Each structure stands twice: as C-alpha cells, then as structure tokens.
From TrEMBL:
<feature type="binding site">
    <location>
        <position position="149"/>
    </location>
    <ligand>
        <name>(6S)-NADPHX</name>
    </ligand>
</feature>
<dbReference type="Pfam" id="PF03853">
    <property type="entry name" value="YjeF_N"/>
</dbReference>
<feature type="binding site">
    <location>
        <position position="116"/>
    </location>
    <ligand>
        <name>K(+)</name>
    </ligand>
</feature>
<feature type="binding site">
    <location>
        <position position="152"/>
    </location>
    <ligand>
        <name>K(+)</name>
    </ligand>
</feature>
<keyword id="KW-0479">Metal-binding</keyword>
<feature type="binding site">
    <location>
        <position position="343"/>
    </location>
    <ligand>
        <name>(6S)-NADPHX</name>
    </ligand>
</feature>
<comment type="function">
    <text>Bifunctional enzyme that catalyzes the epimerization of the S- and R-forms of NAD(P)HX and the dehydration of the S-form of NAD(P)HX at the expense of ADP, which is converted to AMP. This allows the repair of both epimers of NAD(P)HX, a damaged form of NAD(P)H that is a result of enzymatic or heat-dependent hydration.</text>
</comment>
<feature type="binding site">
    <location>
        <position position="406"/>
    </location>
    <ligand>
        <name>(6S)-NADPHX</name>
    </ligand>
</feature>
<feature type="binding site">
    <location>
        <begin position="376"/>
        <end position="380"/>
    </location>
    <ligand>
        <name>AMP</name>
    </ligand>
</feature>
<keyword id="KW-0418">Kinase</keyword>
<dbReference type="InterPro" id="IPR029056">
    <property type="entry name" value="Ribokinase-like"/>
</dbReference>
<keyword id="KW-0630">Potassium</keyword>
<keyword id="KW-0067">ATP-binding</keyword>
<dbReference type="GO" id="GO:0052855">
    <property type="term" value="F:ADP-dependent NAD(P)H-hydrate dehydratase activity"/>
</dbReference>
<feature type="binding site">
    <location>
        <begin position="120"/>
        <end position="126"/>
    </location>
    <ligand>
        <name>(6S)-NADPHX</name>
    </ligand>
</feature>
<keyword id="KW-0511">Multifunctional enzyme</keyword>
<keyword id="KW-0456">Lyase</keyword>
C-alpha cells in the first residue's frame, strides 16, 4: 500500500537537518533554499503586491530575511519588521544580507501580502502578548497571509495554540510536513499547506494518509473472493444497517446483516441467532461489531462471541463502550489485529488521557492493545502496533453528523475482507470515507455517503 508524505516532529526535523549537515550541507545553504522557496511563493501567490515580512529571532526569522532579499531582487516592494534582533548565527548572517530597514514589529503598518517568519519549529513558550497582538492585527489587515514553516504561536508537535493565532491563507512547510499541519485545531489555521523541498532527506513512520491503490475484480473473482463481511446488529438497527450497506458499496462480494432488516436487496439479513454459525464459516473475512450495539448483557454476549472467534474484527461504538467497561484486561483479549475505531470520548474510556499529541496517544494505544487504532475526528489518526501511523488531512466538517462512524466501520471491514492487512484496511477505509464525504458536498446525511463510494473507489483503481 502506498504511503503518503513524511510527517516529522520538530526533533525529527532537527535530526534530519543534522544528517544533511553531516553530509556536507550548511545551515546557511539550507536557509538559502528555504528563503528562496518562501520568496517564490510570496511572489507567485501575492501577484506582485507589496509584501511585509515579519522576522523573528531564530532561523525562521533567518528564512524571512533571505526571502526579503530575494523578493527585492525580483523587483518586489518589500518591507521587513521584527520584534528584536536576530539571535541565531544563521539568522544574524541572513539579516546582514538584507540591505533595507527593519521596522519595529509593534509599530509597523500592514501590507496586502503578509509573510510570517516570526517563529517556526523552535517556538518553546507562548508568544509575548504584544507580538501575538501585532501578528493578529497585521494578518487581519492583509489580503493574503503566508506562514513560513508554520503559523507563529502554534506548537509544532501537538497542533495546540500557544497564543491566539490568526487564520493563514497558505503555509509553506519547509522540508517536510509536521504534525501541526494536520492536527487540529492548528491545521485549520494553516490554510492550504505546501511542502518546499529544501534538500533535506526526510523519512518517518508517521505519514500523511495517501490514496490507496485498489485492484478491480478479475475474471476469476466471485462473491466470496471479493470479501465476505458480517455485521452484528443490535438495539439500534439503523446503525448496523448503515455499516452493512457501506460494506456492500465499498465492494464486498457478500454482506450478511445479523439481527437487522432492510437496506439494499443485495444485503443478506439473517436472525442474530446465526451469529455463531456465521463466525464459524471459513469463508468469513471480517466482522463488524458495535454500531447500534446495546452496551448491556445482550450486547456483551454478542461481543464475547466475536472476541472468542477468529474473524478479523472492526469494533466501534457499543463494542468499545463494553470493552471500556470491562477494563484494561479486556484489551488483552481482543482478536488478533482487531481494528478499533474510537472517537475522542471512546478513546479516553479505553486508554485514558495518555500523553502528548493525538499522534502520540494513538501510537501508545496501538502498542498497548496490539490493535490498529483509528482515532477519529477532524484529524483522524490511524496507528498500528508496529509503529506505523497515518494522519488524515482535511476531512469535511460535514462529517460531524450521526451515523458517519457506522459507515466508516463498514468501509474498513470491506477493505479488511478484500485482503488488506489491518493497518492498510483502516487507512484505505478512512481515505474512502473522507473522499466520499468530499464528493457528497454540504449537508449530507450518513446514508448518502455510501452512494458516493463507487466514485471514490473508481479514483483508487
Ligand atoms: N530544520 C531545518 O532543516 C531548517 C529549518 N529552517 C528554519 O528554522 C526554523 C527553526 O529555527 P529555530 O530552531 O531557530 O527556531 P525558531 O526560529 O522557530 O525560533 C527560535 C528562537 O525563538 C526564541 N523563542 C522561542 N519561543 C519564543 C517565544 N515564545 N517568544 C520569544 N522568543 C521565543 C528562541 O529562544 C530562539 O531564539 C524552522 O521552522 C525553519 O523555518 C530553515 O532555515 C532551513 C532548514
Ligand atoms: K512562522
């Protein structure tokens, strides 16, 4: 399965920079490339409008001074403002290369194109209020605002706000994506994110979620080779039906809804009493349990059957609630390479608050449980026990409506049933779900999502 672009924490980015320097690059040469990329983006994006560049004390500011010099050479009308003198050696050098004045940040006047090179990956504490106020004022009065590496005031690794941060039109990530570009609430403030290649090789187990490649069925395929999914119904039959319909639309050859009714005619609806026989069917490729499952004794007995079975399981909603109630020991009894799809509240009841960013927490949960974790939200993080992590960019906020999680569980099960391993199935499912939502546009209901799956799948063939 293809992996997306690497995502590096601040420390991993510094290590990559150190490796580049050990191979012969210099901080100045890297900064020259970064500054040039910033200048080119500001020139193209700003369409020749007057530019104001805000330069901080570190190397992010250094990138800004280089960009100012390059923009001036291109013929741009550029001004520079700074809250203080440069502090790092490379930034001091870059400041020397700028032959124009440097205005005090708090007194400077706005320009149509604003470039924020105040702080990047080195931000270690909240911004001073006068600096945060100036940034807010100048961005709000600009037509376009470009952030160098990341908007100043955001925490690189967690996506948290260390100060009030304005909304940027564009962020030019230097060398690689960082967690801040995908995790909320920061990602929303970055605007469009572009990555500038500055000549640093970047590798990471953490990647951006990529479009999966899916094979179309061949002449030898039949309904069971396409994948057989069972969905366990429960107290709220609509939820399981949404999962089952989504599994069908996501390409499964056979979907059996146990203890539910309705849905497309192609859906095989059978009484819940057939669960044991279905779980024993050697042709079964994946089982979904949780959507609509009552967190009571009846639900528990169904969950116990699935936990004791060998079918690859996708567990959501009611199943997660039951596992959370059973305590940490229950996590040890999960079927091999189960896929758990918790939202925030479910995640916390299963794994506690954890530590660090959403990426860190998902990774810790996967390692502790041995399951693939799909930590849902506007910034869904998928973590495998072997350390691989994928972060989904840019989900449609219209997904925040009842039933979309049930649809996701069904799509993930369909991907698992077609033969993908648990991590790849979760990644493919989240990608298809997000793409179907994008295609559905505004104000859809969960039922509509399944109808957009064929087009989403067509984009992956
Ligand atoms: N990592 C890389 O490979 C490269 C990084 N470059 C740039 O370097 C940046 C990182 O540079 P630095 O590590 O110098 O860090 P920054 O430029 O982000 O800021 C660090 C400086 O700000 C000070 N500081 C931190 N928080 C502050 C606060 N709240 N208020 C006031 N001062 C504060 C620190 O004491 C230090 O002087 C990247 O974001 C990127 O823009 C590029 O120049 C080229 C290559
Ligand atoms: K910045």
């Amino acid at each position: 399965m293809s992996r997306g672009r690497a995502i590096l924490t601040a420390a991993a980015m510094r290590a990559a920079e150190d490796r580049a320097i050990a191979r012969g690059a210099s901080v100045e040469s890297l900064m020259a490339r970064a500054g040039k990329a910033v200048a080119e983006a500001a020139w193209r994006f700003g369409g020749g409008r007057p530019v104001l560049i805000l330069c901080g004390p570190g190397n992010n500011g250094g990138d800004g001074y280089v960009a100012a010099r390059v923009l001036k050479a291109l013929g741009a009308n550029v001004r520079v403002a700074a809250p203080c003198d440069p502090q790092s050696e490379a930034a001091i050098q870059a400041r020397r290369g700028w032959d124009g004045p440097v205005e005090p940040l708090t007194d400077t006047t706005p320009a149509p194109m604003l470039v924020d090179a105040l702080f990047g990956t080195g931000l270690s504490r909240p911004l001073q209020p006068d600096v945060a106020d100036a940034l807010m004022r100048l961005v709000s009065r600009a037509h376009l605002a470009l952030a160098v590496d990341l908007p100043s005031g955001l925490a690189t690794d967690t996506g948290a706000l260390l100060a009030p941060v304005p909304h940027f039109s564009l962020t030019l990530a230097l060398g690689a994506l960082k967690p801040v570009h995908l995790l909320q609430p920061a990602a929303h403030l970055c605007g469009a994110v572009r990555v500038a290649d500055i000549g640093i090789a970047t590798e990471s187990l953490i990647t951006e979620l990529a479009r999966p490649h899916l094979a179309a069925p061949g002449p030898a395929d039949h309904k069971y080779s396409r994948g057989f999914v069972a969905v366990v119904g429960g107290g709220m039959p609509g939820a399981a039906r949404l999962s089952a319909t989504a599994a069908l639309r996501a390409g499964s050859g056979m979907v059996k809804l146990l203890g539910g009714q309705g849905g497309p005619d192609a859906l095989v609806c059978r009484p819940i009493e057939e669960l044991a026989a279905t779980l024993a069917d050697k042709r079964l490729n994946a089982v979904v349990i949780g959507p609509g499952l009552s967190p009571d004794a009846a639900g528990r007995s169904l969950l116990d059957q699935v936990m004791a079975g060998r079918a690859p399981a996708v567990m959501d909603a009611g199943a997660l609630r039951l596992i959370g109630d059973m305590g940490a020991e229950a996590l040890k009894g999960l079927p091999a390479m189960a896929i758990l799809t918790p939202h925030d509240g479910e995640f916390e009841s299963l794994f506690g608050k954890g530590q660090g960013s959403k990426i860190d927490r998902a990774g810790q949960a996967a390692a502790a449980s041995g399951a693939v974790i799909v930590f849902k939200g506007a910034d869904t993080v998928i973590a495998s026990p072997d350390g691989q992590i994928a972060v989904a960019p840019d989900a449609s906020a219209w997904l925040s409506t009842g039933g979309t999680g049930d649809v996701l569980a069904g799509i993930v099960a369909a991907m698992r049933a077609r033969g993908l391993d648990a991590f790849d199935a979760a990644c493919a499912g989240v990608w298809l779900h997000g793409d179907a939502a994008r295609r559905a546009g505004p104000a859809f209901v969960a039922d509509d999502l399944a109808n957009h799956l064929p087009a989403a799948i067509a984009a992956c063939l």
